[in-house]
Design goal:
484 residues, alpha+beta, Adenine-n6-DNA-methyltransferase TaqI, Chain A, domain 2, 2 domains, 17 helices
Length: 484
């Protein structure tokens, strides 16, 4: 049992009246109770304003939100231009128009205001390099700047000090499994003066080593390709698909059509520009690839899931989060919420190995109709429920589910589903749009061969990421060794 002593006056000064032992021990009392024992945040860091110059949004620019940063701190920004605004990136444009954008500078430290409550899972941290200083970032990142030795303090924050960041963060309704940090929380932080002085005493050799490692990391980073680029490259090579030609369709603002074309394969008699883009993508793909077919011919069943009320604590059942579906086609079974709610025939909603899931959409164009396949379910796992925002698709044996997932996640799949989705604010797809999806459908043995090529390329990417992780782990160990 851990007990902390505090006073009513100290408790009253805490803005949120937080009184848990972890917070009081790390922030308010403990061995950092005297001003001579610690540095304040303002002694080591400064908060940076979330400013953006209007000229930054003219012509082409790169934009990065939290989801575009991987666990290794590597940013994968999207390339945008308001004069060439298209539906594929509409969600980004809307966020920017609402003010969710800021400029950064070299050596800025960015980290997500959402922190996982599992201390073993480090949140997303970035130290801005010279090459990244022109990228615009989401204001969901907290932006600070180290007053000296930025490389050293960056790694200190994400290693030795990380538990204290998590302890400072506050649980906020709507962020299951996460707590939030604000600028006010940062200003209340206390840094052990002995730890910081040790780091500063070794700052020069540490900085030299960090720069050597980061130079190696930068070479490896240039080899990293996103899963969708790999998938597109493989499909393009296998079927001689001109992906650039398909992407050009999205820039069109008007289409010449006829009543006959509108009625053809158009159950809902849709005639919007978006629907015509989806139709043209299908037509262009069919002209390029002779073995194209409709997905409805291979679907045995397509059913929406069930979304019971969830909580933050371990319970009898898990419920998949929408981010369990990834671009690489692998379902992340660890991205879950929890529930104790039951219903009749609830086993119909349990995830089983080999199930393919497609996201219906949930407000973001990027999340519409992404597909992933469930791998092996751990034996000790409690039942996992798939939610209403997903469609579980069972397929005939003459097609490979992973191949179908890759086709859906490819460029021509993204173009089709984002344009064919229906809804004013929260666009979604139904089994109807899913069944009308046209894709290259060779024999199953060729599908498996293509899946193996994609997975081989994805494994190579993972090897590069492991090299990056090992290199940065060297620095983490150096920092913690000095502090310990």
């Amino acid at each position: 049992m851990k007990i902390c002593n505090t006073s009513f006056s100290a408790f009253a000064k805490e803005k949120s009246l937080r009184n848990d032992c972890v917070y009081q021990r790390i922030i308010s009392n403990g061995h950092l109770s005297r001003a001579t024992d610690y540095y304040r945040f303002s002694d080591l860091f400064s908060l940076r304003e979330n400013k953006i110059e209007k000229t930054k949004l003219e012509d082409d620019f790169d934009y990065c939100q939290i989801g575009d940063v991987d666990k290794d701190g590597i940013s994968h920004p999207v390339h945008l231009n308001f004069d060439e605004r298209d539906v594929l990136d509409e969600d980004y444009y809307k966020k920017i128009e609402k003010g969710d954008v800021m400029s950064v500078a070299e050596n800025d430290i960015l980290f997500s205001f959402l922190l996982p409550q599992d201390e073993k899972i480090v949140g997303k941290f970035i130290r801005i390099s010279n090459d990244e200083s022109d990228i615009l970032f989401s204001t969901a990142f907290l932006r600070i700047n180290a007053k000296k030795y930025p490389e050293v303090l960056y790694y200190y924050l994400k290693t030795a000090f990380y538990k204290k960041l998590v302890a400072t963060a506050r649980i906020r309704k709507g962020y299951t499994g996460y707590a939030t940090l604000s600028n006010d929380d940062l200003l209340d932080l206390r840094f052990d003066k002995k730890e910081i002085n040790k780091l500063f005493l070794n700052a020069l050799p540490l900085t030299k080593k960090i720069r050597e490692v980061e130079a190696k990391v930068e070479i490896l980073r240039k080899k990293i390709l996103s899963p969708n680029i790999i998938i597109d490259k493989v499909f393009s090579n296998e079927f001689d698909i001109d992906m650039a030609k398909i992407q050009q369709i999205d820039s069109k603002k008007a289409f010449t059509t006829s009543v006959n074309i509108i009625a053809l394969k158009n159950e809902n008699l849709r005639f919007s520009c978006r629907w015509n883009k989806a139709r043209c993508v299908q037509t262009e793909l069919s002209n390029m690839v002779s073995c194209c077919d409709k997905l409805e011919r291979y679907i045995v069943s397509a059913n929406n899931g069930w979304s019971p009320e969830c909580n933050e604590n371990d319970s009898d059942y898990k419920v998949l989060s929408l981010d369990a579906i990834e671009k690489d086609g692998a379902l992340r079974l660890d991205r879950v919420k929890f529930t104790d709610i039951t219903r009749q025939s609830m086993s119909n909603y349990f995830v089983t190995e080999g199930d393919m899931f497609v996201s219906r959409g949930n407000g973001s164009d990027e999340l519409i109709a992404m597909a992933s396949v469930a791998g092996e379910i751990p034996e000790d796992s409690c039942p996992i429920i798939y939610p209403d925002i997903m469609i579980r698709v069972h397929l005939l044996d003459n097609v490979d589910s992973k191949y179908i997932a890759y086709a859906i996640n490819s460029c021509f799949g993204r173009m089709y589903f984002k344009n064919v989705a229906k809804g004013s604010n929260k666009k979604k797809i139904t089994p109807l749009e899913l069944g009308n999806f046209i894709f290259p459908c060779p024999q199953k043995k060729d599908q498996i061969r293509i899946v193996n090529i994609v997975q081989s390329e994805l494994e190579k990417q993972e090897m590069v990421r492991q090299q990056i992780y090992s290199l940065r782990n060297e620095i983490d160990n150096m920092i913690t060794a000095i502090v310990d």
